[in-house]
Design goal:
Aldehyde Oxidoreductase, domain 3; five-stranded antiparallel sheet; four-stranded mixed sheet; 9 strands; about 35% helix; elongated
Length: about 130
């Protein structure tokens, strides 16, 4: 399952989407909004995305991961809109018969998403705001 949504992200949904009887491992990554960046206090973040293209990119990431590692399933969800400190902004889950492949595919997914997906982040500070890449 691959989605861009304004709704809060669910770890339970991610786990259920990738759990398979033949897979002994599920790696899960949850990216959250932190309260600082480059020495500045962050008050909130707003994400925007080209939804259809981002979801296609998520599917391409999963296809590439499956070709590199033996994965059972992959779930990628990214949130858009205004997020508060501590909110989950991205959830990635990968199942695999073994943990090494699950961890490697999960890391590949987040690193590739940050480089390739058409998702933009605007950080809000006490003294202004800025667009941040990745």
């Amino acid at each position: 399952m691959f989605k861009v949504t304004t709704d809060p992200l669910s770890i339970d949904e991610a786990y259920a989407a990738v759990r398979k009887d033949g897979c002994g491992a599920v790696a899960l990554f949850v990216g959250t909004v932190r309260d600082h960046h480059d020495g500045k206090k962050v008050s909130k973040i707003s994400y925007s995305a080209f939804k259809e293209m981002a979801e296609k990119e998520f599917a391409a990431i999963a296809k590439e991961a499956e070709a590199r590692w033996k994965t059972g399933a992959m779930y990628i969800a990214h949130r858009t809109g205004a997020l508060a400190i501590g909110d989950a902004s991205v959830v990635i889950a990968v199942s695999s018969p073994h943990r090494a492949e699950a961890f490697e595919a999960c890391r590949y997914a987040i690193e590739t998403l940050k480089k390739m997906a058409p998702i933009w982040k605007e950080e809000f500070y006490e003294t202004g705001k800025a667009w941040i890449s990745g």
